[in-house]
Amino acid sequence: MPPQRIAVVGTSGSGKSTFSRRLSCVLQIPYVELDALWWNPNWSTVPIDEFHARLSDAVAQPQWVIDGNYSSIRDRIWQRADCIIWLNYSFPVIFGRLVVRTWRRIFRGEECCNGNRETFSQTFSRDSVLWWAITTYARRRREYPKLLQECSAAGKTVVIHASPSATEAWLADLPVVTTAPGCI
Fold this sequence. Notes:
It is a single chain. This protein is about 50% helix and about 10% strand. It is of the alpha/beta class. It has a single domain, classed as P-loop containing nucleotide triphosphate hydrolases (Rossmann fold, 3-Layer(aba) Sandwich), CATH 3.40.50.300. It has a five-stranded parallel beta sheet, with helices on both faces. The chain starts with a strand and ends in an 11-residue tail after the last helix.
């Protein structure tokens, strides 16, 4: 039986949300994007108690795929998860993906979450997702191996993908619960 509560982590640009949506579709279990729980329109954050309430509602469900790297709430998610997947791609891969995604969103006016959109000026500020990836990539590569080893020792399934092709192969090997268009 496939896992029922899956946490997906990885540096910004690794493809967490895209992969998580696809995984959710294949397994026919709800998808939860932590960014959508945290951000309100106009890039304002929800009050912390509301964020925690939203998270509590999400993790209380019997099945889910949750993506995000919010270290302040990681324990709440990982305690309940039966599987943790780390998209542990190289910096050139994630940064290249992130640049393409950022420019695509800016020039097409694509929404990120809750009506928010990336802007050209934001891209070159300290609020830039590109800057966030640069400043968090090495930290995640240091932290996650130990944390995931502890999860594995506690009986959780830990899956680490070092490349997008490894992720695609793993996803293709899952037993397909649905044949809905766009799932794979």
